[in-house]
Write the structure tokens for this entry.
Amino acid sequence: MQHSMSRTENCNKAVANGDALCCVDPDIAKLVRQEWQRQNCEINLIASENVAPLAILQTLGSVLVNKYAEGYPAQRYYAGCELYDDMERLAIERAQQLFAAAHANVQPHSGSSANLAAYLALLQPSDTILAMRLDHGGHLTHGARVNFSGRLFNVVHYGVSRHSQRIDYDEVLQLAQQHRPKLIIAGASAYPRRIDFGRFADIAAQVDAKLLVDMAHIAGLVAAGVHPSPLPHAHVVTSTTHKTLRGPRGGLILCRQELGKAIDKQIFPGCQGGPLMQAVAAKAVCFYMAARPAFRQYQQQVIDNARALAAALQQHGLSLVSGGTDNHLLLIDLHNSEISGQEAEAVLSRVGLVTNKNGIPFDPKPPRITSGIRLGTPGVTSRGMKQQQMQYIADYIATALTKRNEPDSLQTIAQQVRELAVAFPAYTSLPDSGCVAAIGDAT
């Protein structure tokens, strides 16, 4: 006679063992299921987001979450870290090889903490930094007054030319000569053009400043060799690992060998305690995957898709900041239209196109409203979409914005977006034992 446990008995056992989310916490399990469905049924065009491979998710959700490993390989403050030493060494070695870096620190929890550690290693409080303006495409941690960077340091900002909407290198040189910063920052979160790292290095050398490049957005493009690398030019390079790199959410610091000890000291014990070893191991997986030939093909497709999306949007009469893109992102300029960035984001969300409102250079509207929309192609490319799908997406965007006050038209577009999304799923199954998936449709 066969004996089998009922679902209730299985759940009771799972609750006792704490090893089944749907039984331990069905509320969160339901929300996870809903989020899985959302990602599959919508089209994510946020430039700073991507679709992490299952191998990354599996590493993040592994037993590695159980261990404290304060310190560095062979210099831990806890016993039992031998295997974690091996994991971190792999991550370091792979990062160094991938980016041709002399030194790598893989412990930063985020790009922000990577930047903080780098600043503290290179500067003293109140020292002067020269960085890109947030409203011209820079980043919060590049000296915004509400951020630690703007509170701890004296930050002078450069921007883009009003005419070309590209970095004005003559202005950068002029400001550098005038303010004599100790650190110059190159890198952006909403700049669709290539940055001339060599030009920045020349300017930094003229005023005896260090050069830090924040390549968080373009790291995957750099790793694949489809975008110039800042490593030959910069003293320090910071990055995230979850944008174009398709890895876990986290940070990374690469630097010249002579700065390695100072950088490491500012991560631990300077800014952080125990590293998230599940994330460190996932970064090792990320770097391994990024070194494969398929990753280069993927990154080239990211750029091809961005250019195709830009061209298709322009065919619909939409204006783009700087007239196009050289990388993975683009900015729609709405300042001459009747709709704000905030309104456009809401309209596009209604039809299943996930974007973010974004300021444009010399934006007449406040940051909470904005005159722009930022789009990116890493996520849709990870799902297998190519240039033809970018044409469809441009059609959906243009039509939704034009017919934003027509509910029937928006409903039709939403159905078209959903059909395209489910044809290119982010994940065909949840990376678990099936318990969460067994809940069934939560919508």
About this structure: The longest helix spans residues 293-315.
